[in-house]
Write a structure and sequence with these properties.
The chain has 133 residues and is an all-alpha fold. Helix content is 61%, strand content 0%.
């Protein structure tokens, strides 16, 4: 499955009410389809691990669903510590930070080192701290 098919999947499962609520709530994403997290996680399990696709989706930082799907495609051990720090530092909100922490960061042997490298009070630091406690 490639980016066009994934975007089509997002579009087919869009929820305008959810998208409106997220926008009113201050979500920083320019494009919000309003897909629910269980459906995104199901898609991630269907696609499986794919480092390049995951990075492409993570770098699509204007689309909420791309950011939430990307960690499902990441094998934690396939990323360097610096890549993990960079991705965590690039989190746009608590929602994408929580997904990255839940699916990738907490599963690494160096999770505590990654946490120490993140700015105190950042979304990623808060999310990873919650998952490590």
């Amino acid at each position: 499955m490639g980016i066009p098919e994934i975007k089509q999947w997002f579009f087919a499962r869009r929820n305008g009410n959810t998208a409106d609520i997220l926008k009113r709530g201050g979500s920083p994403f320019k494009m919000i389809f309003g897909c629910d997290v269980p459906s995104i996680s199901e898609l991630g399990r269907h696609i499986g691990f794919d480092r390049e696709l995951a990075l492409t989706l993570w770098n699509d930082s204007n689309v909420r669903e791309s950011r939430l799907l990307a960690p499902w495609l990441m094998k934690p051990e396939e990323f360097t510590q610096q890549e993990c720090i960079d991705m965590a530092s690039d989190s746009r909100c608590m929602e994408d930070a929580m997904m990255l922490a839940f699916r990738v960061l907490k599963r690494r042997d160096d999770a505590q080192e990654i946490l120490r490298a993140l700015p105190e009070g950042s979304h990623a630091a808060k999310a990873l701290r919650q998952h490590l406690e």
